[in-house]
Write a structure and sequence with these properties.
This protein is an alpha+beta fold. It has eight helices and 13 strands. Bound molecules: benzoic acid and fe (iii) ion. It comes from Corynascus novoguineensis.
């Protein structure tokens, strides 16, 4: 612990923070907000005010018991204790509470035809090899082979060359490579770059459904809630190119038993696809065996400018609906005091 003491302030003079005395169920909220409102950062002040309002209302509405508050604190401590460089239980918590998907939807709205986003999850890594089109990204001999043939286009149907595409999926046992203690190299993941026609293609595995990590506090919570911990079979994709809104998404196999009950709420109708089988011509064209699984998909990216405009428009409409006196500063709402 540092021996240095923070500077003393006074709450009794007019210059210091507001005097806090005799706080009650009814006046604790405005007083907490007042003392949190001394920063010049309008966005931080607004975020804290709304957080405190909702937290306090939650406690008042539920008449939160001390035992429940303690259990919640212990739950959060458990999330911290099980987290490490390669595991983040708090993101998992955000995922199973639907917050991750909500934040992605708010921040990356799509115009009609734009490929929708999905949850990132904790298994993307930065060490995937950049592979030329047509490569195999799997080293698992047990899985069912799949050829993926995809394009990246804009909302007018024009090809976007030079897009970096991160792709990752589990092996046939439903585990990502990083979940194997003996991982010595990346597997079932790669980075591709779209060609002049916006195409990229690779060989992977037919995805399988798998459980999210459930040996920690989040798994226990799901159990208490009588919820399962499964994700439907999917392949992750992340698209990046300067000037384009980064797209984090996934494609889900139609008919998966968890298609409509994903533990982390990532499935959207537009992301559910049917696999085909590779025919003779396609096999010849792509140098793969006839009869293996075929995933074909056209992804549609939106520009950063398009996305920002749409996000501002949706934010303005949402705030108007809420009847709040707010304005957008740097695309984010703050109270309008003018
Ligand atoms: C995933 O799809 O990799 C994932 C997403 C959220 C939580 C756990 C896993
Ligand atoms: Fe996944």
């Amino acid at each position: 612990m540092s021996g240095e003491q923070p500077e003393r302030t006074t709450s009794r003079t007019g210059s210091g923070p507001p005097a806090l005395l005799d706080l009650t169920i009814d006046n604790i909220t405005p007083n907490t907000i007042r003392i949190n409102s001394q920063s010049d950062n309008a966005r931080l002040t607004y975020l804290m005010a709304r957080l405190v309002t909702h937290l306090h209302d939650f406690a008042r509405e539920t008449r939160l018991s001390t035992a429940e508050w303690t259990a919640a604190i212990n739950f959060l401590i458990g999330c911290g204790q099980i987290s490490s460089d390669v595991r983040n239980e708090f993101i998992l918590l955000s995922d199973v509470l639907g917050l991750s998907l909500l934040v992605d939807n708010i921040n990356h709205p799509k115009p009609p035809g734009g490929t929708e986003g999905s949850v990132l999850g904790p298994f993307h890594t930065h060490d995937a090899p950049v592979l030329p089109n047509g490569s195999s990204m799997t080293s698992d001999p047990a899985g069912e082979p799949m050829l993926a043939v995809c394009t990246v286009k804009d909302t007018h149907g024009r090809a976007i060359p030079g897009v970096t595409v991160d792709i990752w999926e589990t092996d046939s046992s439903g585990h990502y490579d990083v979940q194997h203690a003996d991982r010595d190299a990346p597997s079932e993941r790669c980075v591709m770059v779209s060609d002049e026609q916006g195409r990229f293609w690779f060989r992977g595995l037919k995805p399988v459904s798998y459980p999210i990590p459930h040996d920690g506090p989040v798994g226990k919570l799901l159990q208490l809630l009588n919820r399962h911990c499964w994700r439907p079979a999917h392949v992750h994709f992340m698209f990046g190119k300067d000037g384009w809104d980064r797209l984090i998404t996934a494609l889900y196999l139609r008919g998966d038993p968890y298609e409509t009950s994903d533990a982390v709420f990532g499935v959207k109708k537009s992301l559910v696809i049917d696999l085909d089988k590779v025919d003779k011509e396609t096999a010849k064209e792509y140098g793969v065996e006839e009869g293996i699984w075929l995933l074909k998909h056209d992804f549609v990216l939106t520009t950063q400018e398009e996305t920002e405009k749409l996000r501002d428009q949706l934010a303005t409409e949402a705030l108007q609906k809420l009847g709040l006196n707010l304005k957008l500063v740097d695309h984010l709402p703050v109270p309008d005091l003018d």
